């Protein structure tokens, strides 16, 4: 089946009702039926003089002419066949509407240009021959010289042929090109709409992924801030209970340590909630509605700890984004750093843990996220020792290497008769440490040792230039 240019324009008109058979719309079917009826009547009328001149029965000539004109109803389905019918009836000097409309339809179709040119040329040649013969018969040779007839008849015939065949062909070519352009633009617009829809879906997926990542990050930060200090508070509270009556002075020191750790935990928690509230008005940031509800009950307690926060000299704010920009030794995100590991180890020693701390390599600064991640790994590892291996000897090692920093926390098996601290554990600490390290492209290993203890090791690459 050959599809015409007019049918192409309605190929995907799903919004309009479909017409019968091969027509894309009902009004197209009605138009073709009217044109076919007009063409049939025209050919039938023109068949009468042809029958008289050719000596054939008038009824046969009129009937054949009417049927030839009716073939125009097939112009959208078989344009080549309709043009051939128009060429066939040209010697009978009938089918002006048939020839004109069929040439227009042929030129506007999706057929190759060479076929259009061939059929249009055949139609023009047939019309030219018939016109030449007709003009010669109509002219009176005795009124003109032989030289005049030699150029007059061909010129007149050629002008008549061009006037009949050129306009429908040119108009058909223009309409077909315009229709193809509109269809191409429509397809391009549909493609762009699909791409925009796909981009919107991907943007929504990325936004959901970012929200989930932010929730995970906040949960990890809350765990790191609270779990370590609360664990130490529980250990000191147990020691305070044991020595409250025997050694009041030691009990007083333990009580002071518990108070200091509680204030530090509240200060860090208040700072983090403040960061969430600061992000409240930023698009794409995690809403601070839940954080504000927690912050208000803690406001008075946190205000009392501002002095301790000022003396500590660090704000625990966390900026969302990648803080490992190369070429900078300053920490992009304020928070704990490797210089504070000594104080962290000192807190565990004050709680009664035997901790050995060693530093290897040339001490230098790293990117902010690198130092914070290393600090949090050591902090969480010490917290796990307090929870599950109270009193066990522990070794903390910090190694400065070329382009990376490594930390190791390893504890021995707990002493006989030492009970577990009874602190809840959901297994989120090791998961959080692994997530932090792998997010920076590092390696994380944890597991029991042959001697019954536990080892946590992390190697974190430094994307910037240490100094």
Automatic annotation (TrEMBL):
InterPro entries: HATPase_C_sf, Sensor_HK_TwoCompSys, Sig_transdc_His_kin_sub3_dim/P. The chain crosses the membrane at residues 54-74, 80-103, 115-135, 155-177. Keywords: ATP-binding, Coiled coil, Kinase, Membrane, Nucleotide-binding, Phosphoprotein, Transferase, Transmembrane, Transmembrane helix, Two-component regulatory system. Residues 313-326 have a biased composition (Gly residues). It is an enzyme of class 2 (transferase). It catalyses: ATP + protein L-histidine = ADP + protein N-phospho-L-histidine. It comes from the Bacteria. Residues 182-213 form a coiled coil. One of its GO terms (molecular function) is kinase activity. Residues 214-279 form the Signal transduction histidine kinase subgroup 3 dimerisation and phosphoacceptor domain. The keyword Ribonucleoprotein does not apply. Residues 312-335 are annotated as: Disordered. Its EC number is 2.7.13.3. PANTHER family: NITRATE/NITRITE SENSOR PROTEIN NARX-RELATED, NITRATE_NITRITE SENSOR PROTEIN NARQ. This is histidine kinase. It comes from Streptomyces glaucosporus.
């Amino acid at each position: 089946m050959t599809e015409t240019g007019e049918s192409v324009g309605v190929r995907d008109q799903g919004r309009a009702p479909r017409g019968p058979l091969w027509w894309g719309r009902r009004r197209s079917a009605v138009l073709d039926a009217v044109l076919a009826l007009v063409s049939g009547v025209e050919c039938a009328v023109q068949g009468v003089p042809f029958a008289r001149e050719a000596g054939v029965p008038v009824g046969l000539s009129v009937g054949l002419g009417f049927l030839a004109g009716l073939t125009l109803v097939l112009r959208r389905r078989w344009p080549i066949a309709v043009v051939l019918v128009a060429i066939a009836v040209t010697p009978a000097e009938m089918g002006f509407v048939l020839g004109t409309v069929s040439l227009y339809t042929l030129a506007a179709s999706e057929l190759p240009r060479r076929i259009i040119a061939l059929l249009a040329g055949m139609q023009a040649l047939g019309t030219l021959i018939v016109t030449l013969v007709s003009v010669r018969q109509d002219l009176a040779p005795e009124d003109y010289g032989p030289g005049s007839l030699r150029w007059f008849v061909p010129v007149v015939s050629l002008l008549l042929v061009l006037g009949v065949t050129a306009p429908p062909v040119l108009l058909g070519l223009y309409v077909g090109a315009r229709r193809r352009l509109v269809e191409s633009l429509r397809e391009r617009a549909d493609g762009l709409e699909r791409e925009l829809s796909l981009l919107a879906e991907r943007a929504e997926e990325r936004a959901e992924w970012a929200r989930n990542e932010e929730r995970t990050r906040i949960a990890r930060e809350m765990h790191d801030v609270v779990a370590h200090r609360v664990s130490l508070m529980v250990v000191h509270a147990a020691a305070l209970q044991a020595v409250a009556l025997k050694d009041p002075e030691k009990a007083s020191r333990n009580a002071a340590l518990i108070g200091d750790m509680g204030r530090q935990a509240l200060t860090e928690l208040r700072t983090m909630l403040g960061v969430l509230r600061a992000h409240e008005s930023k698009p794409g940031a995690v809403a601070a509605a839940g954080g504000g509800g927690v912050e208000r009950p803690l406001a008075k307690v946190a205000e009392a700890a501002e002095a301790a926060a000022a003396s500590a000299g660090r704000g625990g704010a966390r900026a969302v984004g990648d803080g490992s920009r190369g070429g900078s030794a300053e920490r992009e995100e304020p928070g704990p750093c490797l210089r504070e590991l000594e104080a962290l180890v000192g807190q565990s020693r004050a709680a009664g843990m035997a901790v050995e701390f060693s530093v290897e390599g040339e001490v230098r600064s790293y990117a902010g996220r690198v130092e914070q991640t290393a600090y949090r790994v050591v902090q969480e590892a010490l917290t796990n020792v307090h929870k599950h291996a109270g009193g066990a000897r522990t070794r903390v090692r910090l190694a400065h290497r070329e382009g990376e920093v490594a930390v190791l926390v390893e504890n021995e098996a707990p002493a006989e008769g030492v009970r577990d601290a009874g602190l809840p554990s959901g297994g989120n600490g090791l998961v959080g440490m692994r997530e932090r390290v792998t997010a920076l492209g590092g390696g994380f290993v944890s597991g029991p040792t042959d001697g019954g203890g536990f080892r946590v090791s992390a190697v974190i690459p430094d994307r910037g230039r240490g100094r």
